[in-house]
Each structure stands twice: as structure tokens, then as C-alpha cells.
Amino acid sequence: MPQDPGPVEGLYDAPRLAQRLGITTATLRQHRLTTPRPAWLPEPAGELNGGAVWRAQDLRKVEELRGDMRPGRRTDLEQAQSADNLADAP
């Protein structure tokens, strides 16, 4: 039986990128299809076996650009703090 060669060096498919970002593949897909697409998510470099792939070099600053965006809904406290910050802005 042939051995699985593992991930192609330098490429991230959707499951691998989602794991790196700490989100589900469904959330990544939703971000990809959102118009306008989030600035932190680069366009895929192409498709491999029918799925999007990204080059590792294109993803260097993804975490930095994404910031502290934890997956899931914000808590009521976080929403209230965000509203307070907007109200205090000049």
C-alpha cells in the first residue's frame, strides 16, 4: 500500500489553514465567501483537488492582521465594552 506523502510543502488547504487560525473549515469558507472578504485573508493561490490552497508565504502575517479575533460570538460584556469605547470616541 502506498504511503501518504503528507501535506504538500508550502501549501495550506482549507482544513490546515483553519486549524492554524483556530477556526472551523466552515468559518473559513464563510470568511472566504463574504463580500468584501476580510483584509486579513489573502486570495487563494489556486485550487488543488477541487479545494482552495494558499501559499505559506502569503499567510506570513495572517495572525498579525487578524488580531485578537477569537472564534465564536462575543460575550455581552465584550459587546458592552465595545459600545462604551465607541461612545467615548470623539
Explain what you see:
Residues 65-90 are annotated as: Disordered. This is DNA-binding protein. It comes from Cellulomonas fulva. Residues 65-77 have a biased composition (Basic and acidic residues). This protein has helices at residues 14-21, 25-33, 62-66, 76-88, and strands spanning 11-13, 46-48, 51-55. It has 90 residues and is an alpha+beta fold. It has one domain (11-88). Helix 1 (14-21) packs across helix 2. The chain is globular and about 45 Å long. It starts with 10 loop residues before the first strand and ends with a helix.
Explain the layout of strands and helices.
Layout: E1 11-13, H1 14-21, H2 25-33, E2 46-48, E3 51-55, H3 62-66, H4 76-88
Antiparallel strand pairs: 1-3, 2-3
Quick one: biggest sheet? 3 strands, antiparallel
Q: Low-confidence runs (pLDDT<50, min 5 residues)?
A: 1-6
User: What value does the average pLDDT take?
Assistant: 76
**What's the end-to-end separation, in Å?**
67 Å
Overall form: globular
What is the CA-atom radius of gyration, in angstroms?
A: 17 Å
Written as H for each helix and E for each strand, in order along the chain, the element string is EHHEEHH
Structural category is alpha+beta
- Assembly form of the protein: single chain
- Give the strand order, joined by hyphens, for the main sheet: 1-3-2
Region (Disordered): 65-90
Protein name: DNA-binding protein
Biased composition (Basic and acidic residues): 65-77
Keyword list:
three-stranded antiparallel β-sheet, DNA-binding protein, 90 residues, 39% helix, 4 helices, 3 strands, alpha+beta, disordered N terminus, 12% strand
